[in-house]
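Weekly modeling sync, notes
Attendees: S.R. (lead), two postdocs, one rotation student

Agenda item 3: backlog of single-chain predictions. S.R. asked that every request posted to the team notebook include the full sequence so nobody has to chase files. The rotation student volunteered to paste the first one in as an example of the format we agreed on. Action items at the bottom.

Example entry:
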Amino acid sequence: MSQYGLLIDYEYCTGCHSCEVSCKNEKKLAHGVYGIKLSEIGPFEITPGNWEWNYIPSPTKLCDLCADRIEKGEKPACVLHCLGLAMDYGPVEELAKKMAAKGKKMVMFVP
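Predicted structure, as returned to the notebook:
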């Protein structure tokens, strides 16, 4: 049986917080409690005139990859509602191949 995970390509994350909002709504989480939390890194200057600014969604200990949704054949709420299409859910082996092909600005979460 394959293990499943979440792949986040933060090169395409726009910082819209839709992953946070969809998770909070799906799990009915209280104010200040998160299943996934968006972190902002930057802006910082790499070389003169060349700036970097990244948004990185990070699942918390409360994330179970929407096990109840997965059982019904649906995607996790954060993946479904990601406006930048920066998140993917699937078998870890497939996600690892996607990650290796891209090579940078990707993180994988496996609960």
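Discussion: group reviewed the output briefly. The chain has four helices and five strands.
Action items: rotation student to repeat for the remaining queue; S.R. to check formatting next week.
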